[in-house]
Amino acid sequence: MQQNERVNFGSKLGAILAAAGSAVGLGNVWRFPYEAGNHGGAAFICIYLGCVFLFGLPIMISEFIIGRRSKASTGEAYQALAPHTPWRWVGYLGVLTGFLILGYYAVVAGWTLEYVLQAVIGGFDGKDSETFIRMFSEFSQHPFRPLLWLFVFVLTTHFVIVKGVKEGIERSSKVLMPLLFVLVVALAVCSVLLPGAEKGVEFLLKPDFSQVTADVFLGAMGQAFFSMSLGMGCLSTYASYFGKDTRLGATAMSVGLIDTLVAILAGLIIFPAAFSVGIQPDAGPSLIFITLPNVFQQAFSGFPLLGNVCALLFYVLLAMAALTSTISLHEVPTAFLHEKFGFTRGKAARLVTLGILVVGTVSSLALGDWGEVTLFGMNIFDFLDFFTAKIMLPLGGMMASVFVGWIIDKQVVRAEVTNDGRLKAPYYPVFLFILRYLAPVGILVIFLNELGCF
Ligand code: TRP
After folding, report:
1. pLDDT per residue as tens digits for the range 258-278
2. Ordered DSSP codes for 134-155
3. Ligand 1 centroid vs 356 CA: distance in angstroms?
4. What phi, psi does 87 have (nearest 5°)?
5. Of 9, 24, 16, residue with least CA distance to 325
6. How far apart are CA 292 and CA 37, in angstroms?
7. pLDDT: is 314 or 300 the higher one?
């Protein structure tokens, strides 16, 4: 650990925006709709919201505590707070998880760049939903086109990372996030007004709990962790850069609220549009890429130029949202290599970038030529997604919850939550109860349920 060298986020708002920048990304706009679509819509969303409150918010505060108290990246944080105990493995596991997530997340981030290009060259003009489906599958199975975008995206992330925490992350979050939010609201309105959109709204808002299975619970829990950037020490690494005045509880609330709102709005864009043009809501990872171009085409049918401008703006902002997330993911293994092995930040970042390019290439090809290579019946891309989001993140979150609930000195926990007694934190007893009992037991029950234990 090199405590003296650590830079801080310049302001409390900077801390919130950076954490929100990490949380809001493809998880909200790409993954949430397709998981909700795969798992029946409204009932999934209800369970998802339960997971956000029950697991997400308390675990986010826990990660903040771990990070700010240890002043170390996640790989070293557990070691710093509980020296010479096996807890350090939780930190190492987080580093690995972050790396693996990047290995497929960056592929999807690359797709957004292809769609930026298509918007520029008018590639959506005059096409129907059948053609959009074909266009996406041809692109994602192309031998090198997605790889090209993967490389562009990963190298951009690399560039921001080596420029340092403060300028790189803070500056990019500040302007673009509010802009994305405005656009997402506008598109949701457009989508709901499309002919035949009511069925999609119903799918999103009218729960049918009779269809709920163990998979739905596991999916909702995994999505909550994924979307809020929890369970691998991403936000704890950011919190190690928080100042002593940053209010942990309030920051978690703001980030959780923004993140959830963007996800629900993304659902409000996708499902009404999908039902309107006859795309199945369970189309999987391609869902937003085959549905959204329809929105831009149809909602602006009399004004094709306006549709293209809107599409361009949307994909650029989505790419930027993905970038603030990939930066936060990249930061974890980079800070770990820097602090643990004493590499310069530049060298640490180069090693991580190289690794991501390799894993990313494999998972991108898994959607095309290497599709027959499977693990547990899934191609590598789907496997990485399943294994990280549905297993590793909930496990890491459970560990963070147990660590703060049971292991760290309670005076330390209280001091962190109240900023050394300067704040009131009326939620403290509930928070502790959730960390000690509800969250760990809840996560365990969902795991056991999935395994068919009851
Ligand atoms: N939460 C981001 C999104 O929704 C992705 C992400 C960034 C993430 N950091 C993370 C997911 C850490 C899991 C863990 O797009």
Report:
1. 999 999 999 999 999 999 999
2. HHHHHHHTSSSHHHHHHHHHHH
3. 15
4. -60, -25
5. 24
6. 15
7. 314
pLDDT score recorded for residue 1: 39
> CB neighbours (10 Å) of residue 185?
15
State how far Cα 375 lies from the chain centre. 23
Q: Tokens 């918010």, residue?
A: 57
Longest pairwise C-alpha distance within the chain: 67
Ligand 1 geometric centre to CA of 102 (Å): 9
Residues 333-351, mean pLDDT to the nearest whole number: 94
Q: For residue 211, what pLDDT is reported? A: 85
**Burial of 142 by CB count in 10 Å (0-12 exposed, 13-18 middle, 19+ buried)?**
middle
- β-bridge mates for residue 378, sequence order: 375
Strands (E), 53-139: none
Q: Within 6 Å (CB) of ligand 1, which residues are found?
A: 22-23, 25-28, 101, 226-227, 229, 232, 234, 325, 328-329, 393
Residue 12 has pLDDT above 80, yes or no: no
Q: Count CA atoms within 13 Å of residue 3 on its CB side.
A: 7
Nearest-angstrom CA–CA distance, 153 and 30: 17
Residues 6+ apart with CB under 8 A from 378: 386
10 pLDDT band (50/70/90 cuts)?
Answer: low
